[in-house]
Amino acid sequence: MVEFEKFELDNGLKVIVNTDMTTPLVAMNILYKVGARDESPDKTGFAHLFEHLMFGGSVNIENYDEPLQRAGGENNAFTNNDFTNYYLTIPAPNLETAFWLESDRMLSLAFSANSLNVQRHVVVEEFRQRYLNQPYGDTWLLLRPLAYKVHPYQWATIGKEVSHIENATLEDVKSFFSKHYHPANAILTLSGNITVETAKELSEKWFGPIPKGTLEIKKIQSEPQQKEKRTLTVEREVPYDAIYKAWHSCSRDSADFYATDLLTDILSGGKSSRLYNSLVKDKKVFSSISAYTMGDLDPGLVVTEGKLVSGVNPQDAEMELDLEIGKIVNEAISEREMNKVRQKAESGLIFGEMNHANRALNLAYFEMLGDAELINNEIDAYRNVSATDIKRIATEIFREENSSVLYYLSKK
């Protein structure tokens, strides 16, 4: 049970406090409700670019990292298709330094042509090194637009193409910042050695004066139901052929998410899982294989990805994969197997919440979903999933007309 209190400032900033006086540290997490799904199709990669720009200096603080490190703090950030997250850990006596730093860059970045040029160059290099010049690196640049035709999940967080970042102007980034980086679009969470009273005092002092900003209603097109199988074959300089097969599934806030998550655990949750035992160990079709659900805010994907054993035909490998998946739909799932994946999910949640940074992130995430209290319903939600639920979800998801397949082949 994660105990917490929450309050909201007049400018719309939501603050959640989890007190634990047994630790000398405080974890601070600021979640901005902006991700790649909020970008324009012709200006993608901006949310990720801002992850970098937010460390490039603000109105009153030229260097974010230096004062934080002097105060004994550590920090990082990440961006995905749904939100952008900044987090840090700092000794409790120095916590006000964190409030000072985070509030100043929420107030306004030090927009300059030089800062934009530096971070634009960093992101472009990341795009090239991680996505274009790395084996299998462009997988999601290919699979997303294959599976999505309307919804902005059709592009990866890094963006559709390098030119969108290369051509980003100072006016573009200023507009993006004012639209998304303000108190009413953010959730601040604190976990560790801090009282609610201190949290209120520091939040009012440092974040209270920041203008509220305008919350825009996001009009995001829903992805229409897929009615036929889609395939794409590419050849690249990679050591092994690979198959990526994706099916449309539910959103993270759906009641069916928990059954979907356990379904993928049954398929590939470790070396005792079905796909590993059948396709890697016994039939030796794949050298490695995994299955997972994306867990996106909007309806997402269930994905299987595997590297093929040399000499195996990709279509034959896909047929073996489909046969194994079909067993979930057509055959009984034992209670022993259900208990195994339930217990694995439960233990993962329990151990994850022992880390204050994880706890702060999860509180912010569930508040974004609708209510931070959802964090305390997770274990019961997994416990209540039945074998019947798994089979129903598998039947709904694993339809051939609902699939998109990327055959990623090694150049001969």
Shape, per Cα inertia axes: globular
Portion in beta strands:
15-25%
Secondary-structure-based class equals alpha+beta
User: Over the alpha carbons, how many angstroms does the gyration radius reach?
Assistant: 23 Å
Please report the distance between the alpha carbons of the first and last residues: 55 Å
Describe the strand arrangement of the main beta sheet, using strand numbers.
Answer: 1-2-6-3-5-4
The residue ranges in which pLDDT falls below 50 over 5 or more consecutive positions are none
Name the helicity range. Answer: 40-55%
Query: How many E-type strands?
Result: 11
Please count the helical segments.
Answer: 15
Order of helices and strands: EEEHHEEHHHHHEHEEHHEEHHHHHE
The largest β sheet comes out as: 6 strands, mixed
Overall mean pLDDT:
95
Secondary structure elements and pairings:
Layout: E1 5-8, E2 14-19, E3 25-32, H1 46-53, H2 65-70, E4 74-79, E5 84-91, H3 95-107, H4 113-132, H5 139-147, H6 162-166, H7 170-180, E6 186-192, H8 196-206, E7 230-236, E8 242-248, H9 257-268, H10 274-282, E9 286-293, E10 301-308, H11 314-330, H12 335-352, H13 356-369, H14 378-383, H15 387-397, E11 403-410
Parallel strand pairs: 2-6, 7-11
Antiparallel strand pairs: 1-2, 3-5, 3-6, 4-5, 8-10, 8-11, 9-10
Helix pairs in contact: 1-4, 9-15, 10-11, 11-15
